[in-house]
Design brief:
alpha/beta; 9-stranded mixed sheet; Spore Coat Polysaccharide Biosynthesis Protein SpsA, Chain A; about 40% helix; globular; single chain
Length: about 290
């Protein structure tokens, strides 16, 4: 069963090679990899084009259209029925795709599969681990951001679902949150969440106060559309959270919140698996890769 893996990248020269290596490290080898440049100014496009493998396709139009537009493009470019997401600065466990595709094949009523994550630093230091409290997630849990939720970049889904539920290209951030809320409200969010970390998320540099504050603005709009009578209460809570974020930003303590998102006490077995996976991925040879 072939899978399309889509990676949109922008100025990711420091991390893109490792992301590509983790694709080549997959136990499931029936895939195509779409690498789509979003107007990078560094060597990212050069790195992508250096890969010498017929399964890899590189696209670049020199424009900076942002993530939502590129994700919609990946759907239109995909040759196969199943599409896997991944960010250009992350890595994935070698058996991620194998485990996800099995769930979709065995359960035709499920459209999407997400996984838990290892939270890592830019230099691949393990910071924490988390996954949602259940294999399923309700509309209220999504809307109110209860639990660990859906790890967007770990999604593997059916192409038909993405075609009928495109990303909102008007949003600069929180495109995933808007999509989950919209489709769940419309009873078209049949997702299974694997309670195990199969995705390595470089969280340290990707989450910042400005992004969070902008996402709160988008959340407030969604509350107005979908929360009915709870809008005022939810909006007031968001205002309080925004005040806290601004304060933490001012005293340079915002990373305190980021660190609290994941479990601090890690199972030694998970640490061992993580270290083994990273070593394996780093040693993968990809023909032509710079």
């Amino acid at each position: 069963m072939f899978i399309t893996i889509g990676i949109s990248f922008y100025n990711a020269e420091n991390f893109l090679a490792d992301a590509i290596r983790s694709v080549f490290a997959q136990s499931h080898q029936e895939w195509e990899l779409i690498l789509i440049d979003d107007g990078s100014k560094d060597r990212s496009l050069e790195i992508a084009r250096s890969v010498d493998d017929p399964r890899v396709r590189v696209f670049s139009d020199g424009k900076n259209k942002k993530l939502a537009s590129r994700l919609n493009e990946i759907v239109s470019l995909a040759n196969y029925e199943f599409i896997a997401r991944m960010d250009a600065d992350d890595l994935m466990s070698s058996d991620r795709l194998e485990k996800q595709i099995k769930i979709l094949i065995d359960n035709p009523e499920i459209d999407l599969v997400s996984t838990g994550l290892y939270s890592i630093s830019d230099n691949l230091e393990l910071k924490g681990v988390r996954w949602h409290s259940s294999n399923y997630i309700s509309f209220d849990e999504i809307l109110h951001r209860r639990g660990c939720g859906v790890v967007h970049a770990s999604i593997l889904g059916r192409k038909e679902w993405f075609k009928r539920n495109p990303y909102n290209t008007n949003l600069k951030v929180a495109q995933d949150y808007e999509l989950w809320v919209r489709t769940s409200f419309n009873n078209d969010f049949n997702i299974y969440l694997i309670q195990y970390p199969l995705y390595f998320y470089r969280e340290e540099g990707s989450v910042n106060a400005d992004k969070v504050l902008l996402s709160y603005i988008n959340e407030k709009k969604l509350y107005k559309l979908y929360s009915n009578h709870n809008y005022r209460i939810l909006s007031m809570k968001l205002n309080l959270k925004a005040t806290l974020i601004k304060f933490l930003k001012k005293i340079n303590k915002f990373n305190f919140l980021v660190k609290k998102r994941s479990k601090k006490t890690l199972d030694p077995k998970l640490i061992g698996i993580f270290n083994k996976e990273i070593k394996y991925i780093k040693n993968i040879k990809v023909k032509g890769l710079n």
